Amino acid sequence: MSNHQKMTALRIVTIVFLFSLAGCTRSTQSVPFEVKPSSTPTSSPEAQITVIEPLATNTSTAEPTPTAGPTNKITDYAFVALLDYNNHTLDVQESIEYYNNTGQGLTEIQLVVPPNAKEDVFTLDEISLNNGQPLSDFSLEGIQLIIPLSEALDNNESCTISLKYQLTLKINDGILGYTAMQTNFSDWYPFVPPYDTEMGWLIHQPSEVGEYLMYDMANFELTLALANGDGLVVAGSTLVVPVEINIYKMIAQNSRGITFSVSDQYQVLSRQYGDFTVNAYVFPGDETAGWATVENTGKALLLFSTLFGQTYPHETLSVVESDFPDGMEYDGLYYLSDFYYKNYNGSNENYLSLLSVHETAHQWWFGLVGNDQANEPWLDEALATYSEYLYYEQYLPGLTDWWWQYRVETYNPSGRSDMTIYDQSDLRTYINSAYLQGAAFLHELRQTLGDEAFFANLQTYLATYQYQNARGDDFLGIMIPAATEDTSRILDKYFRE
């Protein structure tokens, strides 16, 4: 299919969608004690989190409350996209209705273009403002797209940015790329990053270690057409609704992004847990491991909704087996490597089990509360890692010592927890500091504060900063409201300043 044919098809899809769905309504749809080198933490009876089915609250926590969503206007994204699965291209028309909530006037808007970090993947055809004539005076350098404004955009005003572009995916390229088994679209579109009144647009440069993107909450609507879609299954970070043959619609409200994966191999496993549905997309032969991820994910959703004081904010969570290493979280969806599925041993003593819990925890520590993952990766990764321990403490108390030895002590972690991704020499030192030292810090802090204060403060942190981006100082200011000799010693142990 030529570019002209594709864009013509894209326009046809847009017209068909507008007429066929006229009148449709929107649906809402990854503990402090002193770690001693010679021992592992043990669980004491008073430290256990008692759960009665269905999950009841711990005596140290309040009833979970539904998440209310942002109080200010947020940016709306709308996409009409045509996927040529066989030729690995995606043609996109994107509209961004950006609301200026910065508190000041803006003379330019900057976008982050993650796919442009990869050579020859992103081709920009056109940009226009407020449905006007295409712009020519923009600048695209690496992942930074600068759009000058002819008139300043005042605070609490909005403008519409329209883009047309094409993605040409590369083989074996992870979260944005394709293999013989699947095609993944994560961090695939230009978006408006958070804005800081002192630092400006928060755009970090790509790194070989860790994650560098920052996201604001927004609303998303995607209409996806498949040019050769027979036999294909679409896994999405929200409900995937068929509206015509090979045309699907996805709506994600109050989310940090929209992500999807397409394959002709997926076997779909689904189970309801309370108000949530867990959908697992697995490759043939991996169904047993797939059901294990479903169970771990569902139980974690129930536990964390109670323990953290805020319910999981979406109706569904998708777990996608991936043909690339490790795992990766997105709002409403996470990937786990097929390596963990192939090596699943039927027990809870393996990485498939603990990482499914880790990535589920990111729905709170990343999804609900965002942070600067480049400069303060410990803030979400430490909480997600320690959440694994909380899960084992709750459901599998006999394995807490195993978890600590297997997950933490094996690697003899060292270094300060608050190192940036750019301070890290390799992936191992990054994980050791942000994930493992971070978990040790939280455990030690928990032991010092006691369960009641620790979990109460954690719930306050979540309630205060949900749907926002928090900083390390925000977290520490709530978790440690009054410094003591013990808490000062802990901070000196794990942090540089």
Mean pLDDT: 88
Please name the fourth-level CATH homologous superfamily of the largest domain: tricorn interacting facor f3 domain
Give the low-pLDDT segments: 15-62
Distance between the termini: 57 Å
Largest sheet: 7 strands, mixed
Tell me how many strands there are: 23
**Tally of separate helices:** 10
Molecular shape? globular
Strand line-up of the largest beta sheet: 4-7-2-1-12-15-14
Outline:
This protein is of the alpha+beta class. The protein has helices spanning 3-20, 287-307, 338-342, 351-361, 378-395, 400-408, 427-449, 451-465, 472-479, 485-494; strands spanning 75-84, 89-99, 106-112, 122-129, 139-141, 144-153, 158-168, 176-178, 183-185, 195-196, 200-201, 218-226, 233-236, 240-244, 247-255, 260-263, 267-273, 276-282, 316-322, 327-330, 333-337, 369-371, 468-470. It folds into two domains: 1-21 and 74-263, Immunoglobulin-like (Sandwich); 45-69 and 375-494, Neutral Protease, domain 2, CATH 1.10.390.
Q: How does this model look, in words?
A:
- The protein is α+β, with helices and mostly antiparallel strands and 497 residues long.
- It folds into two domains: 1-21 and 74-263, tricorn interacting facor f3 domain (Immunoglobulin-like), CATH 2.60.40; 45-69 and 375-494, Neutral Protease, domain 2.
- The chain is 28% helix and 28% strand.
- The chain is built from ten helices and 23 strands.
- It has helices spanning 3-20, 287-307, 338-342, 351-361, 378-395, 400-408, 427-449, 451-465, 472-479, 485-494; strands spanning 75-84, 89-99, 106-112, 122-129, 139-141, 144-153, 158-168, 176-178, 183-185, 195-196, 200-201, 218-226, 233-236, 240-244, 247-255, 260-263, 267-273, 276-282, 316-322, 327-330, 333-337, 369-371, 468-470.
- The strands form six sheets. It has a seven-stranded mixed sheet, covered by helices on one side. A five-stranded mixed sheet has the order 17-18-19-21-20.
- Helix 5 packs across helix 7.
- The chain is globular and about 60 Å long.
- It starts with a helix and ends with a helix.
- Residues 15-62 have low confidence and may be disordered.
